[in-house]
Amino acid sequence: MKRYLVFILSLICFISGFSSDVLSSVVTRSVDEDIILVVDYTYKEIDGKLSIAREIYRDPYKNCIMVKNHSYKGGLLAEVIINGDDHISYFYLEEGVLQKAERRYLTDEIYEYWVYEYGEENRKLKNILNYDGLGKLKSIKKYCYNERGFIDSIVKFTYNFSDLEKSEKMSYVDSDTTKFSYMESGRIKKVEENELEYLFEYNDDGKISKTTKISDGMPISYETYNYSEAQTLFDENGFNAYGFNSEGYDENGFDKSGFDKFGYDKDGFNFAGFNKDGVNKETGTLFDTNGYDQEGFDAFGYDMNKLDRNGFDKYGYNKDGFDAYGYDKYGYDKNGYDKKGFNSEGFSKNGINKYTGNIYDLYGYDRYGFNEKGFDKNGRNKYTGDIYDQIGFDKDGFDKNGFSKDGINRYTGTEYDPFGFDKNGFSKDGINRYTRTKYDSEGFDVNGFDKEGNKR
After folding, report:
1. Strands 64-73 and 218-229, how do they pair?
2. Radius of gyration of the chain, Cα coordinates, nearest whole angstrom
3. Chain centroid offset of residue 137 CA
4. Which residues of 309-343 are buried (b: 16+ CB within 10 A; e: fewer)?
5. Which of 143, 305, 311, 356 is buried most deeply by CB count within 10 Å?
6. How far apart are CA 242 and CA 234, in angstroms?
7. How many CA atoms within 13 Å lie on the side-chain side of 426?
8. The pLDDT value given to residue 19
9. Quick one: pLDDT at residue 16?
């Protein structure tokens, strides 16, 4: 069944389409979760697509029991070498269709070979004929397809010859059938082979994730398929499928942009076009076509931002506008203070004004913009956030009705407002503006007594 699974896996990859994630390993476990076999895969880029470079088979103790190395020619699999010993060579028709595969020993003696036959109309695989090294037919696999064009079954005929007879006649033929069933999406759902069944599961990307081997209705083992990004998989030489090592360099020491770890290409020039001696490949001089050397400075010692090698322009200021001492052209450092420690508003870091010697400037405001009453220039109070302080008076000392703490109205300059009422809302005649009586809403008259003569 392992041979069928390789075929099924390639079929599933074809149906699912190419992805940046590739199969990294297949782990076979018993129903008790004991590892039986692990197959690891590495890849290389062949004609713009990722192809398997090596298969490593390991036992439960991580011992290597078999290695298959793949080589390619013209973008097609040319040879698989097994344990460095026997190998399988592949031969193709002109259009890249597999025609024959030969398995040979290390001595190059043919052990067995396979011939592939196709239907004339649709070029689908029809038969695989397996011969021994002497050219005697061992078996035939016949491929049958359903109406959707998928493989419906594979019938294998095994030919057995009598050891006593030297003729080419077959003594008897044994056959078995492998049946396939599919999901609506076209992915393989189940494979039936003699007494065994194999169920297939897929991940969210549509890739096969698990196969379960079942006998007499009971699972006996299963295989899990693991995927990784091709660039994270490295072969025995330390290179990934694209030919780069973990540091991003190929076998010649160049990265994917064609530069080595020192920044030079195979011709000895860096990205800017200069060699190690500082000569530009376009001009043959120490300066490029824009007039800059390999460090980015022109003949006068300035870069494209008009800064010298120390980072200052011709006026002595760096890219942030500060001189060598850390002051801008107005004489202030990055925190906004001059050489004497005062900012542009005349305050020190401690809030002392250089003109008055206290925390207020010549206009009576501190470094935060508030006067000693807690108001800013717009009349906003720092404690309440509006134009009145905690006791209800604005920056000029008047409440919302226009009266000062002494009861003088801001508009009339008297104890009464323009409507003739004082700060408590009483007229000269002692009538309250809100109740229209001699008593306010709390029951007190203009002199502060209630009806019983009690003082407010």
Report:
1. unpaired
2. 47
3. 54
4. eeebeeeebbeeebeeeebeeeebeeeebeeeebb
5. 143
6. 10
7. 17
8. 47
9. 37
Going from the C-alpha of 198 to that of each of 176, 189, 214, 341, the distances in angstroms are 16, 8, 6, 83
Query: 């109309």: which residue's tokens?
Result: 121
CB 69 within 8 A of CB 52: no
H/E element, 11: helix 2-16
The dihedrals phi and psi of 152, each to the nearest 5 degrees, come to -90, -40
Which burial class, exposed, middle or buried, applies to 192 when counting CB atoms under 10 A from its CB (0-12, 13-18, 19+)?
middle
Tell me, what's the pLDDT at 161?
Answer: 63
Instruction: Tell me 361's DSSP state.
Output: -
With 0-12 / 13-18 / 19 or more C-beta atoms within 10 angstroms meaning exposed / middle / buried, residue 109 is exposed
Q: How far apart are CA 420 and CA 428, in angstroms?
A: 7
DSSP line for 362-414: TTS--TTS--TTSB-TTS-BTTTSSSS-TTS--TTS--TTSB-TTS-BTTTSS
pLDDT at res. 205: 87
Low-confidence ranges of the chain (pLDDT < 50): 1-5, 9, 11-19, 164, 166
Residues 6+ away with beta carbon under 8 Å from 218: none
C-alpha distances (whole Å) from 117 to each of 12, 79, 97, 128, 129 are 22, 20, 10, 6, 8
CA atoms within 13 A on the CB side of 385: 0
Q: What is this structure's pTM?
A: 0.55
How far is CA 178 from its chain centroid? 43
Give dist(CA 168, CA 159) in Å, integer. Answer: 11
**Cα four-point dihedral sign 262, 268, 271, 276:** positive
| Residues contacting residue 316 through CB under 8 Å, at least 6 positions apart | 323, 324
Predicted local confidence at residue 230, as pLDDT: 81
For residues 143 and 116, give the distance between their C-alpha atoms in angstroms, rounded to a whole number: 11
Which residue spans within 136-268 are E strands per DSSP?
137-145, 151-160, 172-182, 188-193, 196-202, 208-215, 218-229
> How many CB atoms within 10 Å of residue 136?
12
**Whole-number Å distance between alpha carbons of 321 and 415:** 60
What confidence score (pLDDT) does residue 164 get? 45
What residues form DSSP beta bridges with 210? 201, 224
